[in-house]
Amino acid sequence: MTTTKIDKDWERELTPEQYRVLRQHGTERAGTSPLNDEKRTGRYFCAGCGEELFESQTKYESGSGWPSFYAPKDGAVATTADTSLGMRRDEVHCAKCGGHLGHVFPDGPRPTGLRYCMNGAALKFTPEK
Hints:
The chain is an alpha+beta fold. It has a single domain, classed as Peptide methionine sulfoxide reductase (Metal Binding Protein, Guanine Nucleotide Exchange Factor, Chain A), CATH 2.170.150. It is about 10% helix and about 30% strand. The protein has two helices and nine strands, in the order ααβββββββββ. It has helices spanning about 5-15, 15-25, and strands spanning about 40-45, 50-55, 60, 70, 75-80, 90-95, 100-105, 115-120, 125. The strands form two sheets. It has a six-stranded antiparallel sheet. Strands 2-1-9 form a three-stranded antiparallel sheet, with no helix packed on it. A hairpin with a 5-residue loop joins strand 6 and strand 7. The longest helix is centred in the first third of the chain and has 9 residues, at about 15-25.
């Protein structure tokens, strides 16, 4: 992680929901993100640091209630083991700032077979012009 911001900086720069998700490992309620219905061509960035994370071509409808992708940009995300719910899951975070994005599961579509289940509050979408 290359961030040097302190917690108060994050709290000042992010909305309360972004701060809860990105910095406190929160999860937004399923089905609440406007990004669930986003169908335009574009790119998804970390809402914390602006790092490009996903391209719209890798987004798909998983039925999970959260924006889902089958592959991130190379080197854009990292994973750590999450056992907070009494089971092992793979937490996904921004490789640049360490912000919590969501989790990755092995039940996605081809070509990767992975489902990057992301919190919309952790993402910013920029459509192609």
